[in-house]
Every structure is written in C-alpha cells, then in structure tokens.
Amino acid sequence: MSKLVTEKKFKIDIPEGKKKERIDIFLANTIENATRSRIQKLIKANCVIVNNKIVKPNYIVTPLDIIELTIPTSPRPEVHEAEDIPLNIIYEDDYLLVVNKQAGMVAHPSLGNYTGTLVNALLHHTNKLSRLNEPIRPGIVHRIDKETSGLLLIAKDEWTHAKLAKQFYDHTIEREYWAVCWGLFKQSTGEVVGNIARSTKDRKIFCVSNSEGKHAHTFYEVLEEFEFASLIKLKLKTGRTHQIRVHMAHIKHPIFGDPVYGGRVIVYGSQLPKMKARVDNLLEIMQRQALHAKTLGFIHPKTKEKIFLDSNLPDDFEMLLKKLRG
Length: 326
Prior knowledge:
Blueprint: E1 6-13, E2 21-22, H1 23-30, H2 36-44, E3 48-50, E4 53-54, E5 60-61, E6 66-73, E7 89-92, E8 96-101, H3 118-125, E9 149-155, H4 158-169, E10 174-182, E11 189-193, E12 195-198, E13 206-209, E14 217-225, E15 229-236, H5 243-250, H6 273-285, E16 291-299, E17 306-310, H7 315-325
Helix pairs in contact: 1-2
C-alpha cells in the first residue's frame, strides 16, 4: 500500500527594504531545515510560485514579492534509512564518537527533510547508536545549527548517552566556538547576559528579551582584528537555541554572513564602491554564518578520562580569514 503524501504550504510576503537575493538562497535560509539543493529541486518541480508565476532558481527576490512554497511531505518514517554520506570522525571508541560536522548538514531528520542528515550518515557508519531519544534522533546528545560547522558528540548506548547528557545539564562540558563578527570590539574580553526568547514577529527566529524566554550567558574574547571585522572565540555558560548568533547581534556585532541575524548587511563602508565590492566578495565566500564549534572537552563516562578535542576550521572559514588578513 502506498503512503499518503501530504504537503506543507508556506506564504512569504517580502517587505519593503529587503535586499535583493536569489530565491534559492533566500528560501534555504528562511525555511527551517531546508537545504539549497532541496529548494532548487522544489523550484524545478514548480512548487515555488512568485506573484502567481513559476520562477527559476536564479530568480531575484525583490521587495513586495509574494512567494508561495509547497513542500510535499510524507508521514514521518519510524526507522530512518542509512545513507553512505562521508563523515569527518575525529574520535571514536565502543561508547561514543565525535564528528566534525560540515556546514549545511542537518543534525537529524525532520518534517520534509528525512534524508541527507547526520543521523542518516551515522546509521550507515555504525549499528550502535543510543535510543534514549525518540527514534528520529538516535545517538544525538546535542545539536548545532545546520549552517554552523564543528564538533558534535554522539552516544552509542543509552547509559553513555545519559551520562553525557548529565554533563551538559551540569554545564561541565567545555565548548569553544570561533566566529568572525562585524566590527571592532571596545574591549578584548566581555560577556553577554540576556534571556533568549522566540521573536513575536517571526516564530522561527529568536531575540533577547527582558521578560520572557530562558536565561542565557555567553563569554567572548577577541583573537584578531581586521579592518571592519574581528575573529573571536566564545564560551557558553548556557546552551540556548541560536544563543551565540542572537547575543552577538544584540550587542551590534552580528556574525559575518549570518542571513537571519543581520550578518549579511554591510555595516561598514557600504557607501564606498571599492569597500562594497570587497565585502560582497567576502560574503560570496562565506555564504553562511562564520561560526564553528572548534573544541569539545568532557569526561569519558566509562574510563573517567578527560577528553579534549580540537578541530580545524573549514575551508570557507579559512578562506574568509585569509582574505580579511590580505
């Protein structure tokens, strides 16, 4: 018997003042857990309509456009398929493994996005994954955003998973992120404290709130300064959704390239043609937020050994730094 295919519909009204952008990039950055390749397939299947007309992937979104998107969906599968997707595994034993996740990869399957995820790749790599979570997230102890690269901890059994989750709950896990942010910081070190809550204007994004949301605390340190941007490292005292991105935007230093929290708006030299061309080139290199989960430290649940892991910056991040230094 064939499965009943349903669909999920989106309608997006583009406001005045919206910067012109390719529709495949815009939708990939707007629709949760969508990838650019997935959006391109939907466009080619005539599932994207703009102003009541079919468009191509290179259509440029302009102010006052009305975009209608239809995503065919099927009932969530009880068991996800293993897929032969390359993984950059930097540590593994009988109890756990640590993956250096590439940008653009979703951690686990979700509505309309059941393939190409980290979980699909893990299921191909090993038949030992914790089932402590719901079936859709085997082995996943914590997550990072789709377009954030870096280290993720995976549990192979329920006991290990519970022990690692307790370390996250107790805030004893050591994590260090690196980011390129807009602007130069007044102080070389600092902290941001502010509740993270869902935006009342757009429920898919978050903001700092004085009265709602959950307590969030971020520390930062400037590592290197450039003409109009800074390389910083960050440590989290709490682990809220989009915490770093929201906190940096809140203090007027959005993460370079971040399409959601102001990181693709030129905030320095936009009136100078040469500077604008240079920044546009840098944004072409970094088509996501310049944020990488670089280090991870924890106590191994079985051996009680302190494990500390470091990871290389991905190619786009390295190229961005090279151009900024140049």
